[in-house]
Amino acid sequence: MAGAVNLLVQSHPINSALSLIAVMASLAAEYLLLGAEFVAAVQVIVYAGAIMVLFVITIMLLNAGKEERSKGSRVAILLGVPGVLIGGVLVAWTLLYRSNMQATVPIGALKGDPGDIARLLFHDFLLPFEVTSVLILIAIMGAVVLASRPEAVARGARKDG
Amino acid sequence: MIPLSYYLLLSGILFVCGVLGFLIKRNIITIFMSIELMLNGVNLSFVAFAAHWQALSGQVFVFFVMVVAAAEAAVGLAIIIAVYRTRETLNVDRVNLLKL
After folding, report:
1. Are A119 and B15 spatial neighbours (Cβ–Cβ below 8 Å)?
2. Taking CB atoms and an 8 Å limit, are A27 and B23 in contact across chains?
């Protein structure tokens, strides 16, 4: 949570990225406490590994500096912060006082070992799993097309045609 | 034994932090990181509920959310690179035209 607040406070994107990594790592520990070993491992590998490396590389590549304040950002702060805070307090109040506090989660209660999850993933959720693989493929192709220089794309098209 | 509402509260705090960052920040990369923070908050509530109901489907859903987040990060960062190449800025207030 401290990492999450730090992400907001820091004005330099690389510091925000580092605090986001801290958030991911502590969330992985939280998943382990809940007994979800597979999700914890995937969290570390996919989020803290792959996605954050992408972010850091982009920050380095684009040479991002300190952000600047503008008129629009001040309006967003004035209107957005109170609204969001009101919403957050409402949710917290509902959770703490309107839900039954007897509902507890024992530490490490859930059997989240990879075997059970794999059985579920490849039997009951087989079709969504295949669809996500197609989605990832499309995302990769889209990223390559978007990030490549326009001249390079045109040259490739000429070569094909 | 940890009350379920504590987990939900933490996930709500993460989500609110993400929304705040999305609104306040002007740097497009930081806005993207706020979106990731929101997704993580939702994931935490998924796992907490999965542990509460003793249902593994919640964890499978977390897996799908992660896949979507990865795809979104890849495409989004590619878009950021393309935008930066055409207008040399990362400030979202300066990106006000779809066509240059």
Report:
1. no
2. no
8 A C-beta contact, residue A44 and residue A29: no
Residue A134 distance to chain B (closest CA, Å)? 11
Picking from A67, A99, A107, the nearest residue to B27 by CB comes out as A67
Please give the CATH topology (third level) of the domain spanning A1-67+106-112.
Answer: Four Helix Bundle (Hemerythrin (Met), subunit A) (1.20.120)
Q: Is the pTM of this model over 0.80?
A: no
SS3 of A125-137: the string is CHHHHHHHHHHHH
Q: Is the ipTM beyond the 0.85 threshold?
A: no
- pLDDT tens for each residue of A52-110: 888 888 888 877 666 555 555 667 677 777 777 887 787 777 777 766 555 666 655 55
Which positions in chain A touch B12 (Cβ < 8 Å)? 88, 91-92, 95
Counting one residue from chain A and one from chain B, the pairs whose CB atoms sit within 8 A come to 235
**Which domains are present in chain B?**
4-87 (1.10.287.3510)
